[in-house]
Design goal:
Low-confidence stretches: none
Radius of gyration: 29 Å
Strand content: under 5%
Largest sheet: none
Oligomer: single chain
Number of strands: 0
Number of domains: 1
Mean pLDDT: 83
Shape: rod-shaped
Order of helices and strands: HHHHH
């Protein structure tokens, strides 16, 4: 019983949340979070880069090849997104499998605890019935 309490208080909270999802739903949710996060981070980095080079950009506004620049920015975004996407997918699969196996162990311990309670109830029921019997 103490193992169950330790599990529930430490890693059980996260594992119980993870095990509430189907495998594909959990993985897709993590992928979606990654896509949104990478897009925001890439945008912030892009704005920072523009801010650092703002003087150069304003001085050469008419000379910049915007098509080439757009292709480079887009290609960079796709490469960064692909890297983070695949890493996120691998981590999500591992995290889900670990949580699921841990949850299965937790569930087995819960079944054992339930059996102990049932045995205890049966023993208490037998002693109550024996107390009510009187010798004639």
């Amino acid at each position: 019983m103490s193992r169950l309490a330790v599990y529930e208080n430490r890693m059980g909270k996260e594992n119980l949340k993870v095990s509430a999802y189907y495998r594909s739903d959990y993985i897709r949710l993590q992928e979606l979070k990654t896509i949104v996060s990478v897009t925001i981070a890439y945008g912030i980095c892009l704005l920072g880069s523009i801010g650092l080079r703002l003087e150069y950009i304003l001085d050469h506004l008419m000379e910049i090849d915007y098509k080439k620049l757009g292709i480079m920015v887009g290609l960079g975004y796709v490469i960064v997104l692909a890297i983070f996407f695949f890493v996120s997918r691998i981590l999500a699969v591992r995290r889900y499998e670990k949580a699921k196996s841990s949850f299965n162990t937790y569930y087995t311990l819960l079944e054992e605890l339930e059996e102990c309670y049932e045995e205890d109830d049966e023993q208490r029921g037998e002693t109550k019935n024996n107390d009510n019997v009187t010798d004639v």
